[in-house]
Amino acid sequence: MPGSEGDDAANRSSGTSAALFKRVTTPEQGAGAKTSLPERQQHSSDDEGNPFYPEVVDVESVSTGGLRLPQPQEQLSIKSPFSPDLSEQRKTFADRLRHLVRRNRKADDDDDDDFTDDYEVEQIIKSLDHYIVGYPKIAAFANADPSFLIYRKFGWLHNRLLLYLQDELVALEYKLNKLDQRTFTHDNEVKLKSRREDFNNPGLRRDTIKQIAEKLKEYDEHLLRFQKIQAMRRPTVRNQTSLYNFIHHTRSLVDSEAKWIREGADLAAVAREEEHGWFNGFLEDTLHRISPRATQAIFRTNDQKITTGQEKVFLISPFRLDVFLRVVLTILAAVLLLLPVVILFELQPTEASQIRRKGGFQILTIFLFTLLFSASCSVFTKARRQEVFTATAAYCAVLVVFLGSTLNTDAGQ
Q1: Which of 79, 140, 284, 392 has the CB geometry, 3.0–4.6 Å to 131, for a possible disulfide?
Q2: Rounded to an integer, what distance in angstroms lies between the CA atom of residue 143 and that of residue 8?
Q3: Angle at which helices 355-380 and 318-346 pack, to 10 degrees?
């Protein structure tokens, strides 16, 4: 190719300076002319942000053959961190704003790519089929739902132990009283009046008091622990039956070791008692009788579905059931407040002869709805007696005030 030998010689002689320039064809050369000057060497992406790496702008040089240096009238445009950027000064405010928006958008996209998946954690859920038949499967079943955490309290053994410890303390108490009487009768009375005088002389009394201290500590620990155990509520028959059926259906225990599940009076439910515990069970059984498939589809979570596996166990999400129950109770509360108002409004007398007859129906309506409201508070809530009484009195007062206002309106007309 013409001019290639001259270009190579120029590249070798000029060294790195030749890489800073790029030959450009002039209008006289036309579109068919080819450049023989080597392009600027491609630098890596890491060098693009380096302020000391000069960015070369194309320089027009007139040449008909080999490489020649630019003429003096030709100006080199080399961007350096130490030279003012005139192009930035010629930018308008809109250009700068668009550049800032694009840069921020690119930074946000990079952040989204880096942190999008950090908030999703894959959960590990083991099915009941994963565990071996026996105690491992029973432990997994009890862990699947807090309602199945049922164990024995061993109340008889606790009482037997406390009775023994109590009698040991009675014997030590009797022994200490005898020592005090002996000291008072035959020995120095100062030992009973001064602990320092008595303990300075090692004797049987000090050893007895040490035994009493150790025995009292053991007795108190057992007594307080047994108090907490006795405060635990008894499991519902429904949950006890579910655990019993699972044990015998899977044959996880031999008969001699499965009898404990029938010790109803001695069983304790470890899970905390829910506010509507028994009603939740009643509602769950009712919905299951109406449509088992729909109940499982609505109230069972995907995690519970994986946990049950192939076992014939139907788990219900307590949260979803509680939400449904709250909706039902909200509707019930609105009905108990608005329905008697509508009935009292329809029963208001229009003539003087109807006052006695319709007035009796109005009072009966107030009584029945007040009784229903009080029963609802007692059944569906864990309100104490005084709270139920206060709420019932307020409810009855609202109905009586409404009845009195309707009677005054009729009398005025």
Answers
A1: 140
A2: 81
A3: 170
